[in-house]
TrEMBL record:
One of its GO terms (molecular function) is NADP binding. Residues 162-296 form the 6-phosphogluconate dehydrogenase C-terminal domain. This is 6-phosphogluconate dehydrogenase. It comes from the Bacteria. Its EC number is 1.1.1.343, 1.1.1.44. It comes from Mycolicibacterium fluoranthenivorans.
Length: 297
């Protein structure tokens, strides 16, 4: 099957390689001349045979929106656009309408797998009509992990369902990562445990907490047992925040996900104003000692 792929970053580049390995013809566009196959989106549209299928794999937000707006000018009725980035699901409806007004179909696809997707396959969560999803299934089948068709792929519902599902997926990921990290810190704090890295490696088989994330932490600890080469600063790309916001809207309690999001915020503070205020309060009402900054700084 022929596919146009916009965005050849860490994931998009590997997706192109996996699809080409599955005997698909992939024509990619990226602003970086060293990786692109064509010089522009207009050239990409010209290089594809109608009816076209174009997968957009660029950062969420304005870049995705501008890419879809420009594609709408170059594509034709009967073509199909797939947004495979981490767009917020509320943006999918407007994008589907913008394209639909020109007779162009739209699918939103949540994609999980990161840099490992090239060899392991990608988890795919898609939203769109039955007809549009069926049309793109050869691409989805090659990208997803090998095995049962229900493994690694779900047609979650109409437009918007794919990105909503991926948002919740990433919120769950936040909580899982925090739980594994807290377990590591607790193990490392106990002198009885001589090798926390070996514990995490042992958990990779036969335990109920084994998972790919757990295996990745075991790998990281094997490479750097005390994690001495990195800082604790942890960014968030948006999906965790959106998950908590949607949970509030739907009145669904997600304390674990919410706590993991706030833990990321805390990681960016060299000296927490909240905890400084707590220390000051303890000193005021109980005379508890506080550690003061010396005059020398």
């Amino acid at each position: 099957m022929q596919l146009g792929l916009v965005g050849l970053g860490k994931m998009g580049f590997n997706m192109r390689e996996r699809l080409r390995g599955g005997n698909h013809e992939v024509i990619g566009f990226d602003p970086r001349p060293e990786v692109t196959d064509v010089p522009s989106l207009a050239a990409l549209a010209d290089a594809l045979t109608a009816p076209r299928v174009v997968w957009v794999m660029v950062p969420s937000g304005d870049i995705t929106h501008q890419t879809i707006v420009e594609l709408a000018e170059h594509l034709q009725p009967g073509d199909l656009v797939i947004d495979g980035g981490n767009s917020r699901y509320t943006e999918d409806g407007p994008h589907a309408k913008l394209l639909g007004d020109k007779g162009i179909s739209f699918i939103d696809a949540g994609v999980s797998g990161g840099i490992w997707g090239l060899t392991e396959g990608y988890g795919l969560m898609v939203g769109g009509s039955d007809e549009d999803v069926a049309r793109a299934m050869p691409i989805f089948d090659t990208l997803r992990p090998a095995g049962d068709v229900a493994d690694g792929f779900v047609h979650a519902g109409p437009v918007g369902a794919g990105h909503f599902t991926k948002m919740v997926h990433n919120g769950v990921e936040y909580a899982l990562m925090t739980a594994y990290a807290e377990g590591y810190e607790l193990l490392a704090a106990e002198p009885l445990v001589k090798d926390p890295a070996a514990v995490y490696q042992a958990w990779s088989n036969g335990t109920v907490v084994r998972s790919w994330l757990q295996e990745l932490l075991a790998k990281a600890l094997k490479e750097d047992p005390e994690l001495a080469n990195i800082t604790g600063y942890t960014d968030d790309s948006g999906e965790g925040r959106w998950t908590v916001e949607e949970a509030i809207r739907l009145r669904v309690p997600v304390p674990g996900i919410a706590a993991s999001l706030f833990a990321r915020f805390l990681s960016r503070q060299d000296d927490s104003p909240t905890m400084k205020a707590v220390a000051a309060l303890r000193n005021q009402f109980g005379g508890h000692a506080v550690k003061r900054i010396s005059e020398s700084g």
